[in-house]
Amino acid sequence: MSETFKKKSEELKKKFLSLGSIDARYHALIELGKALPPYPHELKTPNRIVNGCQSILHLSASLKEGKIFFETASDALISAGLAALLLTVYNGEEPETLLTCPPTFLSELGVIGQLSPNRSNGLAHIHLRMKQLAIAFVVQKSTIQ
């Protein structure tokens, strides 16, 4: 497991668990979504929409110096916050980290267990799409070498 992934996961867990109530954690989740950087309008294309989300959520990725970076935008604050949780931990990691380190930290945050089945399904689809993008970069890297 990547040390930076592990460190970011632990920091996120500490932050959320220190909030106490589920309501406070949901508020923090919404704030994470609101704090996402603006998503470039030219990237809002149909092929970047994550299927399986209850809301419209765009997700794109780039590879810089062997590290994967995601950008996302959603028309729903909870969906944006859920995506932001994943971005907080996976941004700046090697694509292989995304493929070998599942987001087990999510169940420990105390928010995930409170999600509706539709939101849980959407979160799973966001992670799946991130993995698909990571695989594409791994394949691309192996064909170049």
Number of strands: 2
Shape, per Cα inertia axes: globular
Instruction: Give average pLDDT, whole number.
Output: 92
SSE topology string:
HHEEHHHH
Helix percentage range: 55-70%
Radius of gyration: 15 Å
Distance between the termini: 24 Å
Structural class designation: mainly alpha
Count every helix, treating DSSP H or I runs of 4 or more residues as helices. Answer: 6
Given as residue ranges, the uncertain stretches (5+ residues, pLDDT < 50) are none
Beta-strand proportion: 5-15%
Spatial strand sequence of the major β-sheet: 1-2
Main β-sheet: number of strands, strand sense, barrel status?
2 strands, antiparallel
Distinctive features:
two-stranded antiparallel sheet; mainly alpha; single chain
